[in-house]
Amino acid sequence: HHRQANQEDPSEWGAHVLEPVRTNRGERFFKNVLWNWSHVAVTLFSAVILSRFIIRKLGAEGYGLWQLSYSMIGYYGLLDLGFRSAVVFYSARHRALQQYEELNELISTLVVYFSVIAAVLIGVTVIVAGKADRFFPPSPRYQGDFPQLVLMIGISISSGVVVNVFSGLVEGLQ
C-alpha cells in the first residue's frame, strides 16, 4: 500500500495552514490604520444616523428602554478578563515562532472557555429578562416588549462572545 508521488499524506493536512505572510511592514501598517479608521467612520455614521432614525421610530421612551437594555447587558463584556488581548499577543507570538500546535491549543481552550461563558450568560439573560420590568418598570405600552428586548439583546451579545476569540486571532495574525 504505497502512495503515488503526487498524493499528500493525510496526517500532514493542515499542519502548515498558517504560513508566514511576507509583506512590507509599512504597507501592512498603513492597511491596518486604514481599516481601523474605516471602522471608526462606520461606527460614527451608525451612531449619528441610526440613533436619529431609532429615536424617530421608537419615540423617547422606546429609545430609552433600548439604551437601558444595552446598558444592562453591556456589562457582559467584563467577563472577557483580558483573554482577547491574550489571543492577539499569543497568536502573533506562536505564529512568529511557528508553534502551530500551541496556537491550536490556545484557540481550542479559549473557544471552550467562551462557550461556557456564553451559556452562563444566556442563562443569566433569561433570569434578568424575566425580572427586567420589575427593576425598571416601563409604561404599559412597553410592558411586554421590554423583557423581550432584554432577552433578544442579551442572547445576541452572549452568543457573540465566542467570536472574540476569532477576531483576536485575526488581529494577532495580521
Features of the shown structure:
72% helix; 174 residues; 5 helices; flat; mainly alpha
Give the topology, please:
Elements: H1 25-73, H2 83-96, H3 100-135, H4 145-160, H5 163-172
Helix pairs in contact: 1-4, 2-3, 2-5, 3-4
Write structural notes for this entry.
There is one protein chain. It contains 5 helices and no strands. It has helices at 25-73, 83-96, 100-135, 145-160, 163-172. Helix 1 packs antiparallel against helix 4 and helix 2 runs antiparallel to helix 3 (100-135). The longest helix is centred in the first third of the chain and has 49 residues, at 25-73.
Low confidence ranges: none
H/E order of the elements?
A: HHHHH
Number of strands: 0
Helix tally equals: 5
* Residue share in β-strands: under 5%
Distance between the termini: 42 Å
Radius of gyration: 22 Å
Give a short overview.
The protein is mainly alpha-helical. Helix content is 72%, strand content 0%.
